[in-house]
Amino acid sequence: MNALVRRRMRLARVRDIQFGLAAAVHGQAERQVELLEGSAVRLASLRDGFAAEAGATSGSVLASLGELAMRLELAREGLRNSIAGARGNAERCKEARDAARRDQESADRLTEKATTEARRRAERKQAEQFRPRKRAVQEAQ
Q1: 60-64, 127-131, 135-139: which range is least confident on average?
Q2: Which of 9, 29, 27, 8 is nearest to 19 (CA)?
C-alpha cells in the first residue's frame, strides 16, 4: 500500500467521523424542534382547560382563570420564535449533514480509485519482472 492510498484512507476515516458528528448534531436539532412543539401543544391544552365551569362562580375565580389562560397563551406565543429558530437550525444541520455525506462518499470513491490504481501498478510491476528475455535464443542462431 503506497502513501497515496494511506492518505486517501485517512481522509475517508476523517470524513466518516465528520458525517457521524453532523448526523448527531442534526438529530439533536430535530429533537429540540420536537420538544418545543410538544411544549406548545401542552401549553395550548392547559390553556383550554381553564374554562369557567357551569354553575355559580365568583368574579375573582373567573379573573384568576382568565389571567392564567392569558399567561399560558403568551408563553405559547413566545415559543413561536423559538420553534421557528429551532426549525431553521435543524434545516441548516440537515444541509451540513448532507454535505458531510457527499464528502464522505467522495472520499470513499477516491480511496477506491487509489487502491485500484495501486493494485494495477503492482500487477504491472510484477508482470514486468517475469517477462521472458530473448538474449540467449537469438545469440545461438
Answers
A1: 135-139
A2: 27
